[in-house]
Amino acid sequence: VLGNQDLQDSIKPQKVEFHSLNFNTTLHWQPGWAREARDALYFVQYKVYGQSTWQNKDECWGISSHVCDLTHETSDIQEPYYSRVRAALAGVYSSWSLSCRFTPWRETMIGPPMVTVVHSNKSITVKLQAPRSPYRRKRGSKIPMTNYYDLLYQVFIINNLLDEQHRVLVYEGKDKVIKIEDLRPGVSYCIVAKMYMPMLDHSSAYSSRQCTVL
Hints:
It is built from 2 helices and 18 strands. The chain is mainly beta. It folds into 2 domains: 2-104, Immunoglobulins (Immunoglobulin-like, Sandwich); 112-211, Immunoglobulins (Immunoglobulin-like). A hairpin with a 2-residue loop joins strand 6 and strand 7 (92-93).
């Protein structure tokens, strides 16, 4: 049987880290190494860097899950945050496990744009929509990520006769509607796009492919 100190150490949460996409931010951790740790409950706190007091996250207080949504708590996107997690089992509490420092504006991942493709006989019109943040305008619509960063759309064409991985950049810029002309009728073309942030030299993942035959 584990002594109290051993149990404290063996249920202590591991790998406490922030994951963030378009400012949708969650804290993730892994259970301690003890087999019993599967039954532990978890308690999450957070604070802005430099503050002395930790805040409890009420919705993540005594939970069995290994993830906690901190989107609302990290909405001041320029501020650096910390979070920490402890586990409890059979009346024994582990010590706290601390996350790394997390600054949403620097570290959130940007998602790909939404792509819609309309074709005529020799051209493709591509409509682009930037990903949206979870934060809302006064009127209620979600604020696009282009409000927070200087972002460019990158549009690539894949000519399916060729190699699947052979993506040709056909447009980079801020226009939401672009036209790709002088294409060959009867050929299948696929479009993918991504968001690019020149300042931090970050790219999003590629959007899902939109294919069409002219």
